Automatic annotation (TrEMBL):
The keyword ATP-binding does not apply. It comes from Funneliformis mosseae (Endomycorrhizal fungus). It holds the Pfam family CMC4. It is found in: Mitochondrion intermembrane space. One of its GO terms (cellular component) is mitochondrial intermembrane space. PROSITE patterns: CHCH (PS51808). Residues 1-12 have a biased composition (Polar residues). Disulfide bonds join 27-58, 37-48, 59-72. This is Cx9C motif-containing protein 4, mitochondrial. Residues 14-24 have a biased composition (Basic and acidic residues). PANTHER family: CX9C MOTIF-CONTAINING PROTEIN 4. Keywords: Disulfide bond, Mitochondrion. Belongs to the CMC4 family. Residues 1-25 are annotated as: Disordered.
């Protein structure tokens, strides 16, 4: 029979599922943050503008340095 102290159940915390920072896939983390934000906000783009801006900044920096990433293909195609 168990005689220890009962433990309280902690509510689960929602940690965003983000890939680790990986130089082989630049801006992937920022792209994933957009998807997470959209899912959590019923796909209301206006609520995720900060995440969108971060991806655009990442892609602009990457493209200026001559780099490429699938996460930046839409930014590259706009130019």
């Amino acid at each position: 029979m168990y005689q220890g102290t009962p433990t309280q159940s902690q509510p689960p915390t929602r940690e965003p599922k983000l890939p680790p920072k990986d130089d082989s896939q630049p801006c992937l983390r920022e792209a994933c943050q957009i998807q997470t934000c959209l899912q959590e906000n019923d796909f209301q783009e206006a609520r995720c503008q900060n995440a969108i801006d971060k991806l655009l900044q990442c892609c602009e920096k990457l493209l200026k340095s001559g780099g490429e990433s699938p996460s930046c293909s839409s930014v590259k195609n706009k130019k």
